[in-house]
Write a structure and sequence with these properties.
heterodimer, A: 158 residues, alpha+beta, eight-stranded antiparallel β-sheet, 4 helices, B: 115 residues, Arc Repressor Mutant, subunit A, 5 helices
Chain lengths: 158, 115
Amino acid sequence: MTNPTTVERKSDREIVVTRTFDAPARIVFDAWTKPEMFKRWWAPKSIGMAILSCEMDVRTGGKYRLEFGQDPSSSWAFFGKYIEVIPNSRLVWTNDESDEGAVTTVTFEEKGGQTLLTLSELYPSKEAFEAEHGAEDALPEQFEQLDELLASLSAGQP
Amino acid sequence: MVQHSTAHLDASFAALSDATRRGVLEQLGRSDASITDLADKFHMTLTGMKKHVGVLEQAGLVATEKVGRVRTCRLGPRRLAEETAWIEEYRQLWASRFDELDKVVEELKEKEKLS
């Protein structure tokens, strides 16, 4: 059994993801901030893209750069800088690949040996949020998935 | 274009949180129906069904139209579908990342125990 991942739309420019891990905060923080660990989970097979390279200078003011793709000629990159780093507790970084990228904040709260992880993406405006997450990007397969979801709701399943 | 207002999402999810209302949506997916039809189908009073339909209508999931003395219900604009689709997609991305992260975390825990 894995712990549930929940998503909440906090405002018209912020979305928040929460998840509990059965480990102390220092371990979850390590897995998040060491490139060789990070590479193993950030791009799961189901998202259909592989990490080509990953550079992370995890300290306040440090930069990161993630490259995805099949080979360097057709790769694309996500990059930005860490604007706040508190070991085992808090990470804040910018997403500079787009002009109006979000600021991402991750907090690690340890309670009784477990860690509650909260990730927030805060966009500079409602328009920027919609440019990134808007339904105009929705693909037919997403609707198929939704149909399945609604079908399971109708069937009275949780 | 689609409005992603929190109030609207709240209304949508609240509307879907009730088994009768989900049943009504399923029923209307098959055919339009009057409030009287729906009340009969779900063994409810007319007043009770009116309330449920009101909640669904508020969320944009159902549209109603009064012709003569009969109020007919049909599925509303698909606004909710579009909104929940991207949120569910987004949630699944993070859920699959975090399931992989679990594995890395377990491995680190084991290593820590051994050292």
